[in-house]
Structure prediction request, 706 residues.
Amino acid sequence: MTDVVHITRVGPIALVEIDNPPVNAAGAAVRQALWAAIPELDSDPDVQVIALYGAGRTFTAGADIREFGKPPIPPMLPDLCQRLEDCQTPLISVLHGTALGGGLEMAVATHARIGLPGLRVGLPEVALGIIPGAGGTQRAPRLVGLEAGLEMITSGRHVPAEEALQLGLIDRLDSTSATPRDAARTAAQAVLEGALVTRRTGDIDIPIPADVIARWSAEMARKYPLLPNRKAAVEAVAACAQPIRDGVREERRVFNVCLDSPERAGLVHAFFAERATSRIPEAGSPPRPVGSVGVIGGGTMGAGIATAFLLAGLPVSLSEQDAASAAAARDRIAGHLEGAVKRGKMTGETRDITLAKHLQVDTNLDVHAQADLVIEAAWEDLETKKSIFAALDGVAKPGAILATNTSYLDVDSIAAATTRPADVLGLHFFSPAHVMRLLEVVVGAQTAPDVTTTAFALAKTLRKVPVRARICDGFIGNRILNRTRMAADHLLLMGASPAQVDGALERWGFALGPFATLDLAGLDIGWAARKRRAPTRDPRERYLRLADRICEAGHFGRKTGRGYYRYDGGARQEDPEMLAWLQEERAEQGISPRALGDQDIVDYYLTAMICEAAALLGDGIALRAVDVDAVLLFGYGFPRQRGGPLLQADMLGPQTVLDRIEAYAKADDHFWQVPPLLAQLAASDGRFAKLPDSDTPRPIHPTGDA
Ligand code: CAA
Prediction:
């Protein structure tokens, strides 16, 4: 008996319970305990059946992901699984909650599997940049067949219990036992009585036709050029043609290659980033209850925000300026809900009830009088927002949280327009708000701690990734975006075309390059902002007048068929006229263009991103490096397998980043300045990931001394 594995005997039945909260991950302690217990039970003549199950909410969520990249601790999971399979005593497993990765691999190494209702099983390792590494690629296909096995393993999807039964991954579904332990006893009894047949998965032979393997291999290489582990998973499955031990050995070889890959580092970082951002200094303050939400403004953002809450089951009041805008807002929301019905996220009946009973649209701010939280999503203008908040102050009930969906503006100034600044914060949603996962939670100087924790609790309800930010122009995401947009313009000035910049970054993993993104969003908004800022622009800023010229010609991006590109048949094509303007701009600035390769482009762009990320981390705008990475990953299309700009910085090493900045500064020492925090890390060979959390400006010791 150990802390993490409990054994009880019931007559000839040995019940083995894994108890390693929160998700029974098969970390070193669990493996060691099972490695000691199973052979002992196997050799005990009084034990006739062994039944393995999990305590708490789940069987096991697999290997302990936190052990990846660290020195391995024996016994290794593949050896443990082989030992389970080798048992002479019938050994069965009872699965509830989730049996994922190494959890399912243990289960398929046992001699029969019972599922409980609600179970989901899967081999999600590909999503972490690896492949199943404890026999999963060898045993799962032996149970479900080659094609079904390949589909499960290369997609990593969670398979529901009924389908797992149909596929043959589990042998039975037990919907009568009250607990996994009861189910384990019942199933073990069935084995004793000969009513549940046991067998060794490794003894099953399945055909492995070479053409099927070749087809899947080619498909994975085509679909996932930047994720080599998907194709590697197919290679491993091909080893099912060999005896089980040889196949597992081959799987391990492939697994180890993937484990050492930068994609694995990026994807595991992204997995933890999604969860790490919720650790905030206010965590001790219980959130306020939120049973209803008000939204001010029903344009693209407001309608998206309202939809997000409606989809989460919360009633919404929405106010607009006039009847026509109110009707348009209702139509937008109805359209989004219709989309949810089409995607199977909501039934038609629920949509009808939601629109009829849970959505109230009005032209009067009073409609929000009873809302627990009101989010303003009006035009991005400080004076407009201040007057809305002043009016809202007179309408909202005491204790209601007042949030602004600003993407740049000073939340403290907006809060100052009310008599209750402690109840005010920024909730920066990303468009489309009912789809995008990022939510920047902007904490003002006077925001009460429970207002912040309420926002984090709500984000969980909305299945979003909340990231805490302090106030600055653009907060975390848009502050970095502004900087990288300037860097992208520099690349054009240096000699690249928009298609080259976009192409290089897309080949590196971004879903869409910066110029294609601008065309998609519409160039007119940025044009208006540039005109506003022109009088105060720093004369040292290298400014490219290309976007202005495109707009002056009446081209605003995709919606007008032309922008940085032409969109004649839908697909983007280079626009010779735009290239001629670019050439004129370079000539006017006395620049002779030079050839830039993909790597030059990615290095320049990424360094600008890291530079701004380091600066805002130094300013205490983000609590920690992983929060900055989460913003870029979940709101700005940063490639998941690259983990985020600050993981990239840590992988490159701060000194390398600093050297690049100094090299770029030779051509532009206004744009390229070394952030003090980066200088400090370079001097001490430190890493962003190791910095302590801080939401105030960090004291800097450029020599690296702490
Ligand atoms: N290892 C270590 N920690 C894990 C973990 C794992 N496999 N799975 C979850 N956790 C941690 C989470 O980080 C989180 O920790 P904090 O509370 O400290 O943030 C905690 O457990 C709870 O997890 P969630 O917040 O995600 O809880 P959930 O209920 O929303 O989801 C889950 C549960 C579906 C199991 C989800 O956590 C999940 O998908 N986990 C990963 C499963 C997976 O990928 N397994 C394969 C591992 S790789 C493997 O097994 C390799 C091999 O072949 C040898």
In short: The chain has 28 helices and 19 strands. The CA atoms of residues 489 and 631 lie 23 Å apart. The pocket of acetoacetyl-coenzyme A is lined by residues 22-23, 25, 61-66, 77, 98, 100-102, 105, 124-125, 128, 132-134, 136, 275 (CB under 6 Å).
